[in-house]
Each structure stands twice: as structure tokens, then as C-alpha cells.
Design brief:
Strands 1-5-6-4-3-2 form a six-stranded mixed beta sheet, covered by helices on one side. The chain has a four-stranded mixed beta sheet with strand order 7-9-10-8. The protein is built from ten helices and ten strands. The model has no long low-confidence stretch (mean pLDDT 94). By secondary structure, it is an alpha+beta fold. The chain has a domain of 156 residues: Phosphatidylinositol 3-kinase Catalytic Subunit, Chain A, Domain 5 (Orthogonal Bundle). α4 runs antiparallel to α7.
Length: 314
């Protein structure tokens, strides 16, 4: 179901926020991350008082990459796909700008396990650094094992994966590797419940690696080739090559035809709504702003991909 995005009116300064002593620095991933707690009297009501947030910076080569994480959250609200609320932030003492993502589970009552932990148990030679063995067939085996053990997964994992592939196809995410999805477990006195985590870590998307001065003269053919060459991290089986976003999504929907109606419903928004839910970000006064050129490039990619998805399913 489509949701209204949480919209900030100013960029958040985390310089004086409390750092998390237990999760202060995260070793996973290529981008520097810190965990901080929102103040008990946050600057705007979109922040949860005292909540832990992840302050995730850009890769050094692409200083404005963090904007993609924020735009991806806004797009997820249009699609009705769960992504942690994400905002623009900076640290005025260090000068670092970053995406500020709300922590997506309660560590007091819940535990999060990355899918890679389970997949490594299935394949002792699983390479967690490159994830070359990450494939859909093994993921399906893993998810069916929970059913065998009578652990109910919510939401239904077939629809969750189709939603994830739809979202990744729209934003051009190339990094849905085995540690960028996972399970949230809640243990009660009598049973264990499990749900699939919201789609986090969405910054390797939206053409972040293309410099705006080099794409400003791109023709339609340039955009078409770029989108066509986009590959998902996940492949269908160990023997298959890595596939394009749209090819993999179509294969999943063909595998589970009951998910098709939901895909059609999620795509039922106009091109204009893409800018409606993201345009205010241009007005945020950031040390590394979202430039008009970067925004125009991102919006062009989104519109082209949306047209392709609608042609496939509507």
C-alpha cells in the first residue's frame, strides 16, 4: 500500500547527537557508517525521539551519492514497498554529509540476521565479499526451510521478493547482495516469529556513479543502453549468468503469477508523481546539495525505467 513519505524541512545536524557506543562503526559495506541516537526533543517530528539512526556517508569518489539513498526512500513510498525512513543529514563538526536512516528493528525485543549468515551455512565456500554464489534458487530453499520448521514469515516471501525486484528495477539498484536483505526474529515464550526486513542499503542506484558533466549531453540511445546494461546482483540459479533488472523481475513474476496483480497496483502512479515526492529535496541547504543537474539525471532515469515497467505489466 502506498504511503506518505516523511518529509524534512531542513537538513539535520547530528554533530551533538549521542553516538552509539556498541554500534559506533559498522564494518560491513564500502561506505563509512556511524550509529547515532536522535535527541529526546528532535528538531522535527519526522524523527523518533531517542531512536537509533544510521549515518551513512557517500563513497569518496561520489560525494553526492547519499542523495540516492534518500530519493530511493521517497520512491519506495510511491510503490508501497517498505524502506527505512531516510533523511539528509550532516555533521557540522566533521563536515560530512550523509543519508540518515531510521533503525529498522528493536534490539531489545528482536534480532536481525543477514541472509548471508544462512547462505554461508548452505554453501561453506560462499564468498561473502563478492557474493558470486548468491542466487534465487538457494534463497527459495532457505525461505522454504522456515516453513518446514513452522516459522511463519511475514510478509509472504514470494510477494516480498517480487516487490524487492520491482523496487530495484525502478531505481536501478545493483547491490541487493546476500547481506543487503535479511530476517527479523521475535521470540516469545511459546514460539518464534519472523518477518523479512525492510529494503535497506539502496544507495548503489540511480546512476550515482555517473558524473553530471559527462551525461548532460546523453541522447535517448545513451539512456537506453545504460538502463539495458544494468544488472541485478542476484542471479536466478548457480548456473545462470547475472541478469538484467527487468529480466529477473519478469522471471520472478512468471514463477509466481499470483504476484502480478500487486505489481500492477504498485505501478499505478504517474510520471509527475516521481517529481512530486522528491522535488522538495532540491530546497534543502546542504554542504553537498542535490544539484539540479544530478536531480534531472536521476529523474530521467526513473521516468525511463517506469515506462519500461508499465509496458511490461500494464
Amino acid at each position: 500500500m502506498r504511503t506518505q513519505p516523511l518529509v524534512q524541512t531542513t537538513i539535520f545536524d547530528v554533530a551533538d547527537w549521542e553516538s552509539d557506543p556498541e554500534f559506533g562503526v559498522f564494518p560491513q559495506g564500502a561506505r563509512a557508517k556511524d550509529a547515532v541516537f536522535a535527541p529526546l526533543l528532535p528538531p522535527e517530528p519526522v524523527l523518533v525521539p531517542g531512536k537509533r539512526y544510521l549515518f551513512k556517508r557517500s563513497k569518496r569518489s561520489y560525494p553526492d551519492q547519499f542523495w540516492g539513498e534518500i530519493i530511493a526512500y521517497r520512491i519506495s513510498c510511491l510503490l508501497g514497498v517498505k524502506v527505512p525512513p531516510t533523511f539528509a543529514a550532516w555533521n557540522s563538526k566533521t563536515g560530512h554529509c550523509a543519508a540518515l536512516s531510521e533503525w529498522f528493528y528493536d534490539e531489545n525485543t528482536e534480532s536481525f540476521v543477514m541472509a548471508g549468515d544462512f547462505l554461508q551455512m548452505m554453501h561453506k565456500d560462499f564468498d561473502r565479499k563478492l557474493g558470486t554464489l548468491h542466487n534465487f534458487e538457494d534463497n527459495m530453499v532457505l525461505l522454504r526451510m522456515f516453513s518446514i520448521r513452522r516459522i511463519l514469515i511475514e510478509p509472504h516471501w514470494c510477494q516480498w521478493w517480487v516487490d524487492a525486484l520491482l523496487f530495484d528495477a525502478l531505481i536501478g539498484n545493483t547491490d541487493r547482495h546476500q547481506d543487503n536483505w535479511g530476517f527479523i526474529f521475535t521470540r516469545s515464550e511459546h514460539n518464534i516469529s519472523c518477518r523479512l526486513a525492510p529494503l535497506f542499503d539502496n544507495g548503489t542506484s540511480l546512476g550515482h556513479e555517473r558524473f553530471t558533466d559527462r551525461v548532460k549531453l546523453w541522447s535517448k540511445n545513451h539512456f537506453d543502453r545504460y538502463i539495458e546494461n544494468g544488472k541485478h546482483h542476484l542471479k536466478w540459479s548457480l548456473d545462470d549468468p547475472v541478469q538484467g533488472h527487468f529480466e529477473l523481475l519478469k522471471r520472478a513474476v512468471d514463477e509466481w503469477p499470483d504476484t502480478r496483480d500487486a505489481v500492477c497496483t504498485k505501478l499505478n502512479f504517474s510520471v509527475g508523481e516521481l517529481s512530486d515526492v522528491t522535488g522538495d529535496l532540491l530546497r534543502l541547504d546542504a554542504a553537498i546539495p542535490l544539484s539540479q543537474e544530478r536531480y534531472a539525471f536521476i529523474l530521467h532515469l526513473l521516468k525511463e525505467r517506469l515506462a519500461l515497467l508499465k509496458a511490461m505489466f500494464l
